[in-house]
């Protein structure tokens, strides 16, 4: 007899059922992109208002990204403990409240503190959203759906660029934060109607709730009704300060190879991406572009990423997650180096930064889908959260290090070469140490030595 979680993964995909979860989860991801992209637009504006040095300007992005690093691991652990649904809403509420506080900041230090706190809230969106959407999605389309989730990133980044450029006419950077938060608060209200993850309920042993959600899914998708049973519940640890350390230890015990690959990929991919995204407007302004022109070139880079996500969603089930990541990531880094080399040639520079925007959005959605599939249900949100945290911590210091050390002393081309080489090394380690996840059911992927305990 099949178990409840197997029933969920074998259901037909319906837009009015699982698709609704995809849309609501994706909109939260959109605000993550909007907020991260906004750092790049705020740097020249906030820096000019408070007359900041290049190193100090880097803290605009660093404070926010470090907050996201904390939020990714904290909310991933919380979601594994209190459930996806509650964490799903609370992350966005925290982000909205502290973003509004940041818009009212009287000085730069206060501004950075509120950007850090807003980052904690928003940092939880990605691991929680991916865990929830992935656990509602049938196995046969999970790769496409999880990869397609990333289409919300370039959408959010592009909206950020268009709206930020339009708001330049008001000469008030605080409006950029306020306008971003208003739709986020509306989404918080909508998220309250999302059901709890059936796979989470199954693993928690909440039989009555699990049966209610699963039976509703079967009915709404029009699937054939068949008998099923609930597996034995898995005891979850209570939320304590040491729980976060235990979860990291459990991830490494589950599979050191998988965890090291996940962390290495997240770190290097986002070193490349956040380094470019955060500083591109400032690079272009220094090159002689006005704020509006610099904002629009950055927007072009993010907008072409929408096409990249669509192509990635197709490719991951054609050639596999590992091939997409292993090819597109290093090529994106190469495009970024060529952009820096030909920065003085305006047309060539625009072509290369556009190519980077397309290639990196082949990599990122495939990476999100891949890492979210590598861990079993009991570790999925925290596994993704820890990997995201590693990337946010590493990439979080990029704005400060980039502005104070790398760009001034190495120059742009060599800076991008260094982080590109790191990405190539991580891709090679993935090829050697981690399994392909295409077409396999959740909880049936991972280290062979641990599969028996997962089931």
From TrEMBL:
Membrane topology: Multi-pass membrane protein
GO CC term, one of those recorded: plasma membrane
Main location: membrane
Source species: Saccharopolyspora phatthalungensis
Keyword Membrane: yes
InterPro entries in alphabetical order: MFS (IPR011701), MFS_dom (IPR020846), MFS_trans_sf (IPR036259), Sugar_transporter_CS (IPR005829)
Major facilitator superfamily (MFS) profile domain: residues covered: 21-438
Domain of life: Bacteria
Protein name: Putative MFS transporter
Record key words, sorted: Membrane, Transmembrane, Transmembrane helix, Transport
């Amino acid at each position: 007899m099949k178990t409840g979680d197997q029933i969920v993964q074998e259901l037909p995909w319906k837009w009015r059922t699982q698709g609704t979860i995809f849309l609501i989860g994706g909109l939260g991801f959109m605000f993550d992109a909007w907020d991260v992209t906004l750092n790049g637009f705020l740097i020249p504006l906030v820096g000019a208002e408070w007359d900041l040095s290049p190193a100090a300007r880097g803290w605009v992005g660093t404070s926010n990204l470090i907050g996201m690093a904390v939020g990714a691991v904290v909310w991933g652990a919380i979601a594994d403990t209190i459930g996806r649904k509650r964490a799903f809403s609370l992350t966005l509420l925290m982000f909205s409240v502290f973003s509004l506080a940041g818009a009212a900041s009287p000085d730069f230090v206060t501004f950075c503190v509120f950007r850090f706190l807003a980052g904690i809230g928003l940092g939880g969106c990605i691991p929680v959203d991916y865990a929830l959407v992935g656990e509602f999605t049938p196995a046969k389309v999970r790769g496409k759906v999880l990869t397609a989730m990333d289409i919300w990133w370039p959408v959010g980044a592009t909206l950020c660029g268009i709206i930020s450029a339009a708001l330049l006419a008001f000469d008030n950077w605080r409006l950029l934060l306020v306008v971003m938060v208003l739709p986020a608060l509306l989404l918080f209200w909508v998220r309250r109607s999302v059901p709890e993850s059936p796979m989470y309920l199954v693993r928690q042993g909440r039989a009555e709730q699990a049966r209610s959600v699963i039976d509703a899914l079967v009915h709404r998708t029009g699937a054939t009704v068949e008998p099923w049973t609930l597996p034995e519940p898995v005891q979850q640890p209570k939320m304590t300060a040491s729980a976060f350390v235990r979860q990291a230890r459990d991830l490494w015990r589950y599979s050191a190879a998988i965890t090291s690959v996940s962390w290495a990929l997240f770190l290097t991919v986002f070193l490349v991406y956040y380094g470019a995204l955060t500083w591109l407007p400032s690079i272009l302004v220094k090159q002689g572009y006005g704020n509006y022109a610099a904002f629009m070139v950055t927007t072009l880079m993010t907008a072409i990423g929408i096409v990249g996500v669509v192509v990635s969603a197709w490719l991951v089930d054609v050639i596999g997650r590992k091939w997409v990541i292993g090819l597109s990531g290093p090529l994106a880094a190469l495009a970024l180096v060529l952009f820096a080399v030909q920065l003085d040639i305006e047309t060539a520079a625009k072509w290369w930064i556009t190519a980077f925007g397309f290639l990196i959005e082949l990599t990122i959605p495939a990476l999100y889908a891949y890492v979210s599939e590598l861990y079993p249900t009991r570790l999925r949100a925290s596994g993704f959260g820890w990997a995201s945290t590693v990337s946010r911590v590493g990439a979080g210091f990029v704005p400060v290090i980039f502005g104070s050390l790398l760009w001034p002393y190495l120059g742009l081309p060599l800076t991008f070469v260094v982080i590109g080489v790191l990405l190539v090394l991580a891709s090679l380690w993935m090829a050697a140490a981690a399994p392909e996840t295409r077409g396999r059911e959740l909880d049936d992927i991972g280290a062979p030595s641990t599969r028996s305990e997962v089931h």
